[in-house]
Write a structure and sequence with these properties.
The structure is a single chain. This protein is α+β, with helices and mostly antiparallel strands. It has two domains: 14-173 and 231-320, 2-Layer Sandwich (BirA Bifunctional Protein, domain 2); 333-421, Rossmann fold (3-Layer(aba) Sandwich), CATH 3.40.50. It has 15 helices and 16 strands. It has an eight-stranded mixed β-sheet with strand order 1-5-6-11-10-9-7-8. The chain has a five-stranded mixed β-sheet with strand order 13-12-14-15-16, sandwiched between helices. Strands 2-4-3 form a three-stranded antiparallel β-sheet. α1 runs antiparallel to α5 and α5 (137-153) runs parallel beside α9. It is elongated.
């Protein structure tokens, strides 16, 4: 029987995986430069962690989570995003005892049962950062700078940074805006899609994120209330300081008062980086502040801010920009052997060369020299090192540059030093 991929998943083959390795190494280096340390959390958690953290009315919780009972009947969910699990780990392991802000980053797979499309899969990888313990607007700006630095390091161009504040939950802030938004939308409810008609009662802020054209048209009508006109003075001051720090960082941005992001846990600053070349679903990276989530999940009141970027989505964006990531996985050396004695000697040499960090490949069986040279060429080996009976007797190897064809003899006991220099 032949088996095929489950819809919404993807095999990352060797030529592509080299790009993934480059991307994740680059992200790790940038995150570390900003003071973030890596954390690894389980790919599944108790379901309530996500329903409470992300929000029961969000599309992810209502439509997209992979949820199942375990052997003891507990409801378990494959993580749809990285923040809730990181918050759980922060609380459970008392990381609040560390000097604030506590800066963590993660790289790993997430799972959402959504419609597969370009750069979006049901199993997808995210690289995210979370910073706990500071409400400073400078930290918001630094988190955004971290994201922009990563994209700059990768050579990304033609991106747009959208910025907004969705306020806090004090009565004179976001709730005041939601009341005004409801009043405006109720008289236009017939224009809303069926999903947004439900959202109007349960979570009207989510309507701002709807991609259905009839809903989007409502927000182009005159008189629609704007969230930045309704947030409290404290949140407004916070947002202005974030902008001030972004100006100091010389970061390009645009204020988008309809940006809300897809999770209920966000407060104050939210941001998203988009690429118009990706079409309607143009988001590459997003995040924001979530000052109430740690307390909501059982910890002490703790301000926090972060973002995540999808690996597949970012690779697609870079491809549309014409950026070619390093994809060379070729060996430094291919050891060509003639005879059993040469094979045994090459087996030892290969270990010595690899211990010096020299990528070395050899055929572990008797093949003709022509076949082995063809394999070296197919693997795009930089150098062929040829050892036969005559070379063994003289204590040398023939070193052939595969690009130029130039050959030289190098003593067997000098091979490691020779290639360490080159």
């Amino acid at each position: 029987m032949k088996y095929n991929l489950v819809r919404g998943t993807k095999d990352v083959l060797p030529g592509e995986s080299v790009k993934w390795q480059y991307l994740t190494r680059k992200a790790s280096a940038v995150y570390s430069a900003f003071g973030y340390s890596e954390i690894k959390t389980p790919v599944f958690e108790v379901t309530e962690l996500f329903t409470r953290g992300i929000g029961e009315t969000s599309d992810i919780v209502t439509k997209e989570m992979y949820t199942f009972p375990d052997k003891k009947g507990r409801s378990i969910t494959l993580r749809p995003e990285g923040t809730a699990g990181t918050v759980r780990a922060y609380i459970e392991n008392n990381l609040n005892a560390l000097p604030a802000p506590v800066k963590l980053f993660y790289i790993g797979p997430m799972f959402r049962y959504e419609r597969p499309q370009a750069g979006r899969y049901r199993e997808h990888w995210q690289m995210g950062v979370e910073a706990f313990g500071s409400d400073s607007p400078a930290l918001d700006a630094e988190v955004i700078s971290t994201a922009l630095t990563l994209l700059k390091e990768l050579g990304a161009t033609g991106l747009k940074t959208n910025l907004n504040s969705i306020g806090c939950m004090s009565p004179d802030c976001r709730p005041r805006y939601i009341a005004a938004l409801k009043d405006f939308l109720k008289s236009r409810s017939e224009k809303l899609c069926d999903t947004c008609k439900v959202r109007l009662e349960k979570n009207p802020l989510r309507i701002l994120d709807c991609k259905v054209e009839s809903c989007k048209s409502v927000f182009s009508e005159p008189g629609i209330p704007k969230i930045l006109d309704h947030i409290c003075p404290s949140c407004a001051a916070h947002f202005e300081k974030v902008i001030d720090y972004l100006k100091l960082a010389k970061a390009d941005y645009s204020v988008n008062d309809k940006l809300v992001r897809g999770f209920d846990y966000y407060t104050k600053t939210v941001f998203e980086i988009t690429c118009d070349k990706l079409g309607a679903q143009n988001g590459v990276l997003g995040g924001g502040r979530y000052n109430g989530l740690v307390e909501e999940l059982g910890g002490q009141p703790t301000p926090a801010v972060g973002f995540s970027v999808g690996v597949e989505r970012l690779l697609l964006a870079l491809e549309t920009m014409g950026i070619k990531l390093p994809a060379d996985d070729s060996p430094d050396i291919y050891l060509v052997t003639l005879g059993e004695a040469a094979l045994e000697k090459a087996f030892v040499l290969a270990g010595e060369l690899r211990s010096a960090g020299i990528k070395t490949v050899m055929a572990c069986e008797d093949k003709s020299m022509k076949t082995q040279m063809r394999l070296a060429d197919a693997l795009k080996a930089k150098t062929a090192v040829i050892i036969g009976d005559n070379e063994l007797k003289d204590g040398v190897a023939v070193v052939k540059d595969m690009a130029t064809g130039n050959q030289q003899k190098v003593a067997l006991n000098e091979l490691k030093r020779h290639f360490s220099k080159t």
